[in-house]
UniProtKB/TrEMBL annotation:
Full protein segment contained here: 1 to 260 of 535
Domain EAL: 6-258
Origin: domain of life: Bacteria
Lineage: Bacteria, Bacillati, Bacillota, Negativicutes, Acidaminococcales
Source organism per UniProt: Succiniclasticum ruminis
UniProt-recorded name of the protein: EAL domain, c-di-GMP-specific phosphodiesterase class I (Or its enzymatically inactive variant)
């Protein structure tokens, strides 16, 4: 069990797609004032027979660098659509998929997603796009165009990792996203009592004035959860509630519907 080298990632990628080694873990998102699951995020995993479970931090940058992420992301999106089409409509929740900025270059990406979605006959309200704030670096026009195309097709768009970059305020002004995801990891070590907490609180209030939904991710402690409740951030995702889990487990969790 070890991370794969760049060469191995490139060499084994096609085989991994074809052989079912690449798949999706699901991490639930909760409304912590009601305890109910309100959504989930699909996260890519790669289980290599020899090298074991591989995490995105080790292989996604390589897939991006060598032009393979587009194929991987379409594959993940198809898995999510398949999950949704097998899910009884009474317990269906929106599932977010991650969009790499490389997906948006040179592809009519939304059109490609639409072809897959229609094949599985999943209503668009059950699929949310997540684009990281840093995608706006070096080309906000592409980002705006993508959001517009997602909106025209009916997808809600979340800005991922909001606050991680240094351009957050201007990004917020120019990009009409529906959901802001704040990652508490960016405050790690500092706690919520200091400047970080004040800034986070203000950003949450600002998002509300802009009528943008807010979701905090990376929630690991009760203290963080209490803070989020006190500032009115009701949507949460993190190890405190549930870790990313295999498809079958997500499905059975949906059938019972609340905290484990
Ligand atoms: P992300 O989109 O910000 O996803 C959240 C990451 O935080 C996930 O890591 C998740 O497992 C982790 N996480 C969730 N709760 C907690 C918590 O309470 N504490 C901590 N420390 N971490 C938590 P993961 O699955 O390793 O993914 C890492 C990144 O890889 C993602 O960050 C995303 O940028 C990228 N990624 C994952 N799946 C895909 C995909 O299908 N396509 C693309 N393009 N990128 C993906
Ligand atoms: Ca994400
Ligand atoms: Ca994130
Ligand atoms: Ca992240």
């Amino acid at each position: 069990m070890r991370p794969m080298t760049d060469e191995e990632i490139i060499r084994f990628f096609e085989m991994a797609i074809a052989g079912g080694q690449i798949f999706v873990y699901y991490q639930p998102q909760y409304n912590h004032s009601t305890g109910r699951i309100v959504g989930a995020e699909g996260l890519m995993r790669w289980r290599h027979p020899e090298f074991g479970l591989q995490y995105p931090v080790n292989f996604i940058p390589i897939l991006e660098k060598y032009g393979l992420i587009h194929r991987a992301d379409l594959f993940v999106f198809e898995q999510i659509c398949r999950f949704q089409s097998n899910c009884p409509p009474s317990v269906r929740i929106p599932i977010s998929f991650n969009v790499s900025r490389h997906d948006l270059f040179g592809h009519d990406y939304v059109k490609e997603l639409e072809a897959i979605r229609k094949k599985y006959d999943v209503p668009v309200k059950y699929l949310h796009a997540e684009i990281t704030e840093s995608s706006a670096i070096g080309g906000i026009d592409l980002f705006i165009k993508a959001i517009t195309q997602f909106h025209e097709a009916g997808y809600l768009v979340a800005m991922d990792d909001f606050g991680s970059g240094y351009s957050s305020l201007s990004v917020l002004k120019d990009l009409p996203v529906d959901i802001l995801k704040f990652d508490l990891q960016f405050l790690a070590g500092e706690g919520l009592g200091g400047r970080g907490g004040i800034i986070l609180n203000s950003a949450i209030q600002m998002a509300k004035w802009l009528e943008t939904q807010v979701l905090a991710e990376g929630v690991e402690t009760i203290e963080q959860a209490d803070f989020l409740k006190s500032v009115g951030c009701n949507y949460v995702q993190g190890y405190l509630y549930a870790k990313p889990m295999p498809e079958e487990k997500m499905r059975s969790l949906l059938e019972t519907g609340s905290f484990e």
